[in-house]
What does this fold into?
Amino acid sequence: MRADVFLVEAGHATTRSQAQRLIAAGVQWRLSPLSPWQKVSKNGDDIPSIAEVHLLDDAEAKYISRGGLKLEGALQVARVPVKGLRCLDVGQSTGGFTDCLLQQGAAQVIGVDVGHNQLHERMRSDLRVICVEGMNARSLTPQALQDACELSLSEVIETEEDNETQPEAPYSWMRNGGQVDEEYDDSNDAKDKDIENFKSERAARAKAREQGTLPVERRRRPECADADITPVFDVVTGDLSFISLTLVLPALVPLLAPSGDLLMLVKPQFELQPGQVGKGGIVRDESLYAVVEKRIRDCCAELGLAVVEWFESPIQGGDGNREFFIHARSAA
It folds into this structure.
């Protein structure tokens, strides 16, 4: 079996890309305790399915994605505690930041991402996590986020219909053995117009259901009954691509609690003009990093955020770009 596939299927890595980074850091295998260790040289090397595997450096496997390592280092540098706090993770993706926040003791993480079906199942099934998909961070408002969270925590309640074709007891006279005499009371008999109205209502409901316009009743899933979806957070983190933070920060400030901490990953290639970014999306002119920093600092100032610190990401970007973190704090 291919080495990268083996690591995923054996549970050493959550994705093949993570497995490939583990291989680059050093992986070896053997068939028995008496056998010599065999070094994995490349991703396509074969590892027998019964082999014992040893990771020389398992740091890459600590979190669901490499983003967790970036945030872990940033939390240490910024000295931002998250234990027992409610956090918002913007650009949740597979859940690297979310995983890190939970391992650091966060009480809850609400994650927002414009995509769908990206969050790793381990995070999705954690009751401390609420995943909001299909929402652009630029369009976030407290009410929109609260509504989206409620939707995420709810299930559709199917209404059971009492009769598929006719109203209840449409032919009460049948109870009289088919005999209708002068003493028979027909007040409970369904009238022709009642039956036709009933059929029309059923037809309209069926059409609405087919078109997706039938009103539905939603109810929180029992296991989520006590989930807090108040759109105010002690800590807001984010890892966004293909958009400038200056377009997103205005939407995040109203979600920060008084004295709340904002810790965002800055990717310079998305903060500059196309002509300033080199081939392959790499920023090669290091003087432009200062331009990016000033631009984001100015944006924070305009929004009433106090910048506490600007520092380089402890882990380099996967594409070779230098990345940074900005730590800012809302007014008390």
Summary: The first strand starts at residue 27 and ends at 30. The first helix runs from residue 3 to 9. The CA atoms of residues 42 and 117 lie 30 Å apart. The mean pLDDT is 87.
